[in-house]
């Protein structure tokens, strides 16, 4: 299945080399480890095992000097690989920020589509398409930057035994190691260039989308503001209906009138005193 998808894990026939593409890298990460290729799929260029003529022509006294110089060259090229990976890691933050901004601007355009106004709808659709294209470019560039940062670089080294017993052979191995480091550095640098190109193109689409958004805002009429009637007081204050409030009255004591009792007139007896 991986072969049909263009991600054959088998190494190519010599002397061909292979630096996996982003698609192959993704498919191999999904595959089980028994199927995924070794060394992250990187196949270095095969060099002829025969020593070049300039190494054969060196005098024995100059071989060790040339070996020390070639080891320094190898270390410098490996340091350039580390610097390239650091640059790729620094690209990840602007990529994420631009993706968020472009996605937000695309959402604004999609929300502004109004089919009742064909002109504004066309501008909004064009702005949304530019935003979507910018997002696609940014995602592609992000994957290239990740490839340059996380791709394992294959390196070669010279064995100590070979350096001691056969310095001339060790010099040839060191030349191969320097060539391998240069190959890895070139591939990682090319991924960074692809990522930077994606940023430039995405920024162009982002600017076009932002200009279209500004035009849509200018052409869209302001929403009608409802007029709220202002209630004013009349010239005379409103009459407040009287409320019957019963005030408790002080309890009144009942008035008593002296009762006059009338009794029948009795004749005064001579013994009773006059009243």
Biggest beta sheet attributes: none
Query: Low-confidence parts, pLDDT < 50 over ≥5 residues?
Result: 256-269
**Secondary-structure-derived class:** mainly alpha
Percent of residues in helices:
55-70%
C-alpha Rg (nearest Å)? 50 Å
> How many DSSP-defined strands?
0
The total number of structural domains is 2
Distance between the termini: 149 Å
Mean pLDDT: 79
Work out the helix count: 6
Assembly state of the chains shown: single chain
Keywords: Membrane, Transmembrane, Transmembrane helix
Biased composition (Low complexity): 245-275
Region (Disordered): 230-275
Transmembrane segments: 91-113, 119-142, 198-219
Present the secondary structure layout.
Blueprint: H1 22-30, H2 53-56, H3 60-112, H4 118-150, H5 160-165, H6 167-219
How would you describe what is shown here?
It is elongated, with a radius of gyration of 50 Å. The longest helix is centred in the N-terminal third of the chain and has 53 residues, at 60-112. The protein has six helices and no strands. It has 275 residues and is an all-alpha fold. It has two domains: 1-43, no CATH class; 53-219.
């Amino acid at each position: 299945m991986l072969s049909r998808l263009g991600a054959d894990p088998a190494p190519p026939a010599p002397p061909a080399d292979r630096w996996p593409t982003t698609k192959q890298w993704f498919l191999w990460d999904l595959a089980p480890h028994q199927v995924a290729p070794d060394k992250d799929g990187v196949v270095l260029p095969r060099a002829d095992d025969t020593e070049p003529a300039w190494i054969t022509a060196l005098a024995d006294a100059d071989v060790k000097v040339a070996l020390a110089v070639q080891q320094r060259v190898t270390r410098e090229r490996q340091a350039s690989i580390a610097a390239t990976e650091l640059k790729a890691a620094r690209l990840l933050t602007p990529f994420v920020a631009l993706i968020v901004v472009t996605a937000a601007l695309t959402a604004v355009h999609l929300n502004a589509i109004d089919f009742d106004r064909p002109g504004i709808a066309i501008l909004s659709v064009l702005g949304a398409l530019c935003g979507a294209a910018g997002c696609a470019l940014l995602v592609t560039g992000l994957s290239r930057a990740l490839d340059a940062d996380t791709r394992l670089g294959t390196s070669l080294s010279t064995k100590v035994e070979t350096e001691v017993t056969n310095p001339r052979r060790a010099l040839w191995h060191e030349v191969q190691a320097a060539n391998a480091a240069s190959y890895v550095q070139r591939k990682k640098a090319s991924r960074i260039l692809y990522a930077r190109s994606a940023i430039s193109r995405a920024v162009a689409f982002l600017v076009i989308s932002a200009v279209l958004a500004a035009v849509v805002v200018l052409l869209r009429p302001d929403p009608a503001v409802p007029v709220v009637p202002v209630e004013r007081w009349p010239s005379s204050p409103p009459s407040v209906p009287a409320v019957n409030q019963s005030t408790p009255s002080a309890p009144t004591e009942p008035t008593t009138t002296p009762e006059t009792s009338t009794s029948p007139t009795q004749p005064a007896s001579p013994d009773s005193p006059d009243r």
